[in-house]
Amino acid sequence: TFDKPGFVSGFDRKNSWKSLPICVKCAISIEAGKEYLNEKFLKQFDNFKFYVIPNFVFGEVNEEVMEEMESADKREYVDSILCAEDYILDIIKEEEDVMNLIFMFIKPKQKDFFDIIKYVEDVPPSWIKQLSDALKEIRNLKIFRNEETLKKIFGEKKTGGLDSRITIDRLIRPFFPKSDYDKSFIDIIGDILGRKKIDKNFLINAFMREIRNKHVNKENWEEKTLCLKSFMLLKFLNKLKLIKN
């Protein structure tokens, strides 16, 4: 902003409009708003940072809800994209008709700058709950939870069910490894949040690529795990009607 050394055109504050065409008062408001969002609504999961911003449909901010959201979860890093929202559901369960959520995924650059890599708006709390409930239901299917069934796949050494801590992003990430497929990974997360259908062939190709890699490297256990996770992900998306054939 104009208050940074060397930012103002010709080093004269009166010429700040040439570099940032807004008034001083507006620039200060924007900076204050950014600091507020960073402090209250900025989270991190995997290697991404993202904001979860409440948006009141009719414009009138519910101060009580805002105060509860600000103080409910102070964690900067969360294990899952939905973990960040679990605490919100109880707070705003009475506000579902008047409030949506905005998800903004960012990639930090130098100092205070960042790129917006995914922006998803108008996400109702009821949809977050649907995602959470659907995943729990799929995780509890016999093929993923029954030890005897899994022994037939993995062998007698297998104990318990498939990892009960599997979250949506942990289900997707193995098929879109870090660095090489970060964009595809966050695009799918964004599409799920935004209730957009995902191309089935695109998913199948990703499944086959990673499963084939495990097979070639003779990582038998991991290969079978990926096969089950691919099936779980398809079941999850199909239940939510998010598969595009």
Write up this protein.
Helices cover 48% and strands 15% of the residues. α3 (83-91) packs across α4 (125-139), α4 (125-139) crosses α10 (220-239) and α9 (200-216) packs antiparallel against α10 (220-239). The chain has helices at 24-40, 63-72, 83-91, 125-139, 142-145, 147-154, 168-172, 182-193, 200-216, 220-239, and strands at 42-45, 48-56, 99-108, 114-123, 198-199, 243-244. Among the domains are: 1-39, no CATH class; 130-244, no CATH class. It contains ten helices and six strands; from the N terminus they run αββααββαααααβααβ.
Count every beta strand, where a strand is a DSSP E run of 2 or more residues.
Answer: 6
For the termini, the CA-CA separation is 47 Å
What's the helix-strand series? Answer: HEEHHEEHHHHHEHHE
From the alpha carbons, calculate the radius of gyration and give it in angstroms: 22 Å
Structural class: alpha+beta
> What is the count of helical runs?
10
> How would you state the average pLDDT, rounded?
82
Largest sheet: 4 strands, antiparallel
Range of helix content: 40-55%
Which regions have little confidence, pLDDT < 50, spanning 5+ residues? none
Strand order of the largest sheet: 1-2-3-4
User: Beta-strand percentage?
Assistant: 15-25%
Task: Assign an overall shape.
Answer: elongated
